[in-house]
């Protein structure tokens, strides 16, 4: 019988590629106590390093990979892209790309949008972290351009997944934030005079603007707020929460 509380969910539109691991973790199956209950994989939280390390080990074990195969970064809500030619913990990057089999790139999230990209022709991948600042700055576009430069990635060869994040109905923002988004990605509630932003749509638009066919883009049906039993939400839990990981890589 399948585990009703899995440690991760695969990116559903990428499961056909048997040489690929592409997932986003849940909050289940870890050792962290409240408020980080329970699979907190974020080192940049008040949880103990020992708990986070054990949680990551559990996740990696479930995926059949080792900790020394993972490349990640301390994220800064920017648009810098790392060409990850080796595993390790880096700093200052919100997107990581690689074409090295056995190297898995990952980003951590708890309301921000994770985006995973697979270039099936050149066997290259990207993991991208897009909060509202990164979305406005074009971090997805920057990562795709870096893949084009580094791997000769073509849009028609790409498959992408826009992962679980805060949903449009929950992402209320001030006018100073809303004004930075194009009209198609924001909504003004006439009754409350407040703005709401759709991060999933805004980041999916960067994928299609690069030329990736919409039929090759999947979008998570989950919300970190509305499905808080399964996912962490920094906003809903007022900052006292853990982090999920979105991870992708080609098996060696």
TrEMBL record:
* Family listed: Belongs to the purine nucleoside phosphorylase YfiH/LACC1 family.
- Name of this chain's protein: Purine nucleoside phosphorylase
One Pfam family from the UniProt entry?
Cu-oxidase_4
Record PANTHER family? PURINE NUCLEOSIDE PHOSPHORYLASE LACC1 (PTHR30616:SF2), UNCHARACTERIZED PROTEIN YFIH (PTHR30616)
Q: Which reaction does it catalyse?
A: adenosine + phosphate = alpha-D-ribose 1-phosphate + adenine; adenosine + H2O + H(+) = inosine + NH4(+); inosine + phosphate = alpha-D-ribose 1-phosphate + hypoxanthine; S-methyl-5'-thioadenosine + phosphate = 5-(methylsulfanyl)-alpha-D-ribose 1-phosphate + adenine
Q: Which GO terms describe its molecular function?
A: copper ion binding; hydrolase activity; S-methyl-5-thioadenosine phosphorylase activity
Lineage at the top is:
Bacteria, Pseudomonadati, Bacteroidota, Cytophagia, Cytophagales
- Key word Transferase present in the record? yes
């Amino acid at each position: 019988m399948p585990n009703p509380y899995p440690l991760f969910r695969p990116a559903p539109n990428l499961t056909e590629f048997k040489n690929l691991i592409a997932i986003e973790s849940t909050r289940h199956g870890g050792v962290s106590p409240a408020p980080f209950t329970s699979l907190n994989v974020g080192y940049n939280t008040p949880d103990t390093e020992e708990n986070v390390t054990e949680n990551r080990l559990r996740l990696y074990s479930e995926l059949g990979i080792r900790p020394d195969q993972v490349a990640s970064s301390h994220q800064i809500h920017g648009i810098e892209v790392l060409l990850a030619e080796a595993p390790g913990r880096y700093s200052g990057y919100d997107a990581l790309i690689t074409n090295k089999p056995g190297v898995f790139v990952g980003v951590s999230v708890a309301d921000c949008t994770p985006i995973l990209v697979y270039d099936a022709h050149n066997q290259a991948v990207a993991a991208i972290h897009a909060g509202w600042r990164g979305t406005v700055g074009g971090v997805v576009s920057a990562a795709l351009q870096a893949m084009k430069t580094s791997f000769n990635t073509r849009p028609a060869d790409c498959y992408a997944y826009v992962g679980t994040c805060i949903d449009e109905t929950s992402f209320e923002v001030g006018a100073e934030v809303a004004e930075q988004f194009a009209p198609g990605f924001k909504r003004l509630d006439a009754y409350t005079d407040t703005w709401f932003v759709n991060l999933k749509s805004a980041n999916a638009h960067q994928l299609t603007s690069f030329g990736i066919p919409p039929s090759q883009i999947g979008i998570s049906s989950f919300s970190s707020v509305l499905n808080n039993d399964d996912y962490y939400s920094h906003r809903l839990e007022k900052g006292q929460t853990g982090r999920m990981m979105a991870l992708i890589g080609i098996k060696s």
